[in-house]
Amino acid sequence: MTAPRDLVAYRLEPTASDPAAMIAYLTLDDPDRRNALSDSLLDELLDAVSRAAADTAVRVIVLISSHERVFSSGGNLAAFADSRPPITKYAGLSRFPTLFRTLTSIDKPVVCAANGDVLAGALGIALACDLIIAKSSIRLGCPEISVGAFPFMISALIFRATGRLVANDLMMTGRLISAAEAQTFGLVNEVVPDDDFDGRLREFVDGIAARSPLLMGLGKRALAATRDMSLDAALDYLQAQLALAFTTDDLVEGVTAFKEKRTPHWRNS
Questions:
Q1: Reduced to 3 states, what is the DSSP secondary structure of residue 36?
Q2: What percent of the chain has pLDDT over 70?
Q3: Angle formed by the axes of helices 39-54 and 95-105, to 10°?
């Protein structure tokens, strides 16, 4: 019996600044189904993210697709209308919030390399990442309403990324927008011509990987913790985190390297 093929490929590449530091590329690899977010694919993706998060050599995690034109088509529509009992379908829904929470809570920066269309539930995955870099030719959107569904699970992420009217437009009309339009709405960090995408992605990721992994982790945890706090509570928490940063060797090393006009050597302490 042939073993089932992996739906998410895991690959490590050394960073430009430090051969011992790695970038983890997690490639959605179910092209025949346009990387539909089946239970199996989501389970593999969550495992791969957790694996990269636990690897001390990994500085940055990149989500990307093997499909020529589609990052992911979103939720598996066939599963929406199958004959499984509702309680079974409901139990499977936890995969999306678990993945979203994991992406936002891990210490390492996660980059969505949108090298194809980002649709429906996949838009939620992209927005749960810390940064999104997109090919100029791609489209983004949540067309679920066109098939009698609604993007319930990803609505919280869309509302946190853009304005209410833009979010309502995307969810209620189901229209797809260009990468350039997505950037004006604050849904994408950078749009790159297709022919330049691979090179710019590597440059983009290497730049992030060159930063202190310790301070990056402290900062990302602070962002996650204060996102929904009141201003007063957030300021108190952030003051404490800044005080903690002052105790690290990496902060001293970063300032010293800047003054000496050299590349810092992070100690991760």
A1: coil
A2: 92
A3: 20
Residue 122 burial (C-beta neighbours within 10 Å; 0-12, 13-18, 19+): buried
C-alpha–C-alpha distance, residues 138 and 227, integer Å: 29
CA distance 100 to 46: 9
Contacts of 165 (CB under 8 A, 6+ apart): none
Q: What pLDDT sits at residue 99?
A: 95
In this structure, what DSSP letter does residue 69 have?
S
Q: How confident is the model at residue 254 (pLDDT cuts 50, 70, 90)?
A: very high
Render pLDDT for 119-155 as a digit per residue (tens, 0 to 9). Answer: 999 999 999 999 999 999 999 999 999 888 888 989 9
Rounded to an integer, what distance in angstroms lies between the CA atom of residue 267 and that of residue 254? 10
Neighbours of 40 (CB within 10 A): 14
d(CA 41, CA 52): 16
User: How would DSSP label each residue in 149-204?
Assistant: ---HHHHHHHHHHS-HHHHHHHHHH---EEHHHHHHTTS-SEEE-GGGHHHHHHHH
22 residue type, one letter: M
* CA 118 – CA 70 distance, rounded (Å): 7
Measured between its terminal Cα atoms, the distance across the chain in Å is 49
**Total residue length of the chain:** 269
Q: Which architecture, in CATH terms, is 8-209?
A: Alpha-Beta Complex (3.90)
Distance CA 151, CA 125 (A): 12
